[in-house]
């Protein structure tokens, strides 16, 4: 089993992610040959009535995942996917340690993935079943696939803050003199980048954000906008509810959540500039009852061009599926988290730093929230 150090060496750098995206874009003229090559390996047939239990984050995201990937997978293979909304590293760990593993495929944040590897909680992926032809190099790992990338963004309610007056960087977002109301921030530090946002707001260059100065970030938040001007959300759908209800006019969120709300008619918007790009892994818990079906689903997600492109168009997330990326028009490709056009204006999260420091930073953050 790889150690934490070995996994840390695989942590994706800002440049390597963007080079991978650029390579995908450059490969578009060769899409025909690429798609042919990736489609030569069909998804293996499965036993009748097999069900693979998948856990993710719920809300509109689960609906998108179901409609664009899980239903097409079932139609192609006969394997039914049962999608839950209670994913967590703690739940995965409890199941593995008890020997009663109910989940087959689990979505984890990147720091959680590295922790799970270090604690021996995961099955090693079978790349004899999962073709890696469609996987960008940054996405393939021994115990998981970094299957999507997303942006942690600043979002606003257009009814109260017109786009022309909206924040363009984190300093503006947190400036109480500029915006008088409260802000909602994501309190789950395993995939919240509010501390990075505070350091960016303080003028720290992107290449000097890590190692993250947690105390300095919290000090900045205490002053800008002030502890009493912050409220918190712990689920991805909460900021949408808070913004649309008028509880706040400014919130952190993820690009796909705001895009989905806009499609549903919500007058919300966000900027990709100054955002933080992160990613989630799909993993198979050690002792999973239907691990072969889980491997087949990972193969489908990574290589089916039509389903993958539908997922990307629907979610505005970057799927680790090169054939799918090659099918997208420039108007969509340029808006994705790994677009080379965003290279100079976004920060790539340091997964290895967070894996090493997550627990201590969470404790420090909770004490700070309590006024300590």
Describe this structure in words.
- The chain has 16 helices and ten strands.
- It is an alpha/beta fold and 372 residues long.
- Helix 8 crosses helix 9.
- The radius of gyration is 20 Å and the shape is globular.
- The relative contact order is 0.21.
The proportion of strand residues reads 15-25%
* Extended strand count: 10
What assembly state would you assign to the polypeptide chains in this entry?
Answer: single chain
Please bin the fraction of helical residues: 40-55%
Give the low-confidence spans.
Answer: 1-46
Q: Helix segment count?
A: 16
The shape, in one word, is globular
Q: How confident overall, as mean pLDDT? A: 88
**Radius of gyration, CA atoms, in whole angstroms:** 20 Å
SSE string, helix = H, strand = E?
A: HHHEHEHEHEHEHHEHEHEHHEHHEH
**Helix-strand makeup class:** alpha/beta
Largest sheet: 10 strands, mixed
Distance between the termini: 39 Å
């Amino acid at each position: 089993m790889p150690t934490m150090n070995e996994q840390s060496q695989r942590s994706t750098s800002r440049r390597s992610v963007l080079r991978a995206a650029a390579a995908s874009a450059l490969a578009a003229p060769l899409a025909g040959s690429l798609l042919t090559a990736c489609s030569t390996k069909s998804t293996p047939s499965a036993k009748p009535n097999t069900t693979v239990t998948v856990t993710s984050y719920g809300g509109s995201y689960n609906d998108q995942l179901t409609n664009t990937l899980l239903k097409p997978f079932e139609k192609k293979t006969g394997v039914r996917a049962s999608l839950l909304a209670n994913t967590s590293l703690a739940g995965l760990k409890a199941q593995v340690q008890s020997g009663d593993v109910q989940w087959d495929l689990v979505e984890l944040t990147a720091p959680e993935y590295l922790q799970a590897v270090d604690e021996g909680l995961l099955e090693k992926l079978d790349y004899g079943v999962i073709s890696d032809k469609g996987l960008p190099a940054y996405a393939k790992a021994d115990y998981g696939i970094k299957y999507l990338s997303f942006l942690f963004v600043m979002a606003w309610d257009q009814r109260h803050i017109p786009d022309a007056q909206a924040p363009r960087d984190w300093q503006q977002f947190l400036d109480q003199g500029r915006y008088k109301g409260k802000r909602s921030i994501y309190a789950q530090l395993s995939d919240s980048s509010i501390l990075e946002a505070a350091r960016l707001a303080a003028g720290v260059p992107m290449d000097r954000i890590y190692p993250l100065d947690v105390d300095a970030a919290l000090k900045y938040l205490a002053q800008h906008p002030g502890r009493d001007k912050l409220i918190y959300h712990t689920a991805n759908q909460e900021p949408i509810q808070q913004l649309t209800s008028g509880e706040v006019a400014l919130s952190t969120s993820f690009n796909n959540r705001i895009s989905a709300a806009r499609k549903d008619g919500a007058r919300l918007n966000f900027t990709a500039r100054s955002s933080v790009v992160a990613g989630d892994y799909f993993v198979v818990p050690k002792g999973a009852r239907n691990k072969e079906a889980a491997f087949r689903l990972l193969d489908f997600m990574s290589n089916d061009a039509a389903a993958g492109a539908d997922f990307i168009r629907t979610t505005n997330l970057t799927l680790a599926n090169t054939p799918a990326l090659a099918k997208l028009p420039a108007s969509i490709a340029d808006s994705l988290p790994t677009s080379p056009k965003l290279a100079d204006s976004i920060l790539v999260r340091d997964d290895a730093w967070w894996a090493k420091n997550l627990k201590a930073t969470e404790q420090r953050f909770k004490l700070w929230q309590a006024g300590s």
